[in-house]
Specification:
With 193 residues, the chain is of the alpha+beta class. The protein contains 5 helices and 9 strands, in the order H-H-H-H-H-E-E-E-E-E-E-E-E-E. Strand 5 and strand 6 (155-159) form a beta hairpin.
Length: 193
């Protein structure tokens, strides 16, 4: 049975007797957003999820995992990858609309126990709207298909198919389609324990 990040957050809060107010204070994420994630199944961008995981004292993967495996976890070409772990960057008013919107994160090693990196194949739709993100850790992005716009601090750059970038996540950043077409990337996020 799959669990949403909101269900996992609620489970962990209950296990450790942490109120939403205390979690908000520890994480810097508002009580309203925590409530929306837990009660309505809202999936925010990665930064609030990382902040919440830090506030709970768990890895980001703990909020995203369904099963954990001790050995290696393989993702084979030609086999269906795990389903979308979550979607973010959905334009306001289209949260429940059908079709493709926002950014779909497909975890490549979701079941790996104790991991410190989060590898994803991310599909960025042309209409995805992402706010600037800032969190502890580092990110590596490799563009599989399309043209990716990257805002990093005050700098802007465009990465094309085959380009990559590695950066510190503490600097405000965001990615989106550079030309109004779908983009697919490999994104590896590292957050210190």
């Amino acid at each position: 049975m799959k669990h949403t990040p909101g269900e996992r957050i609620a489970e962990i809060r209950k296990t450790y007797s942490i109120s939403r107010e205390v979690l908000a204070e520890r994480s810097g994420v508002s009580v309203d957003l925590i409530s929306k994630i837990e009660d309505a199944g809202f999936i925010p961008d990665l930064a609030p999820l990382i902040q919440i995981s830090r506030g709970l004292g768990v890895r980001l993967g703990t909020l995203l995992d369904d099963h954990e495996q001790l050995g290696p976890v393989f993702s084979r070409a030609g086999e269906p990858a795990s389903s979308d772990r979550f979607k973010t960057g959905i334009p306001k008013g289209q949260e429940n609309a059908g079709g493709h919107h926002g950014m779909s994160f497909n975890a490549l090693a979701a079941d790996k126990n104790g991991r410190h990196m989060e590898p994803f194949i991310v599909t960025i739709e042309p209409d995805a709207q992402q706010e600037n993100s800032t969190h502890e850790g580092e990110e590596f992005i490799y563009v599989l298909e399309g043209n990716l716009a990257l805002e990093y601090g005050k700098d802007k750059d465009t990465l094309k198919t085959g380009d990559s970038v590695y950066y510190d996540s503490i600097v405000p950043h965001r990615v989106y389609s550079a030309d109004g077409k779908q983009v697919r990337i490999l994104a590896v996020i590292y957050t210190p324990v």
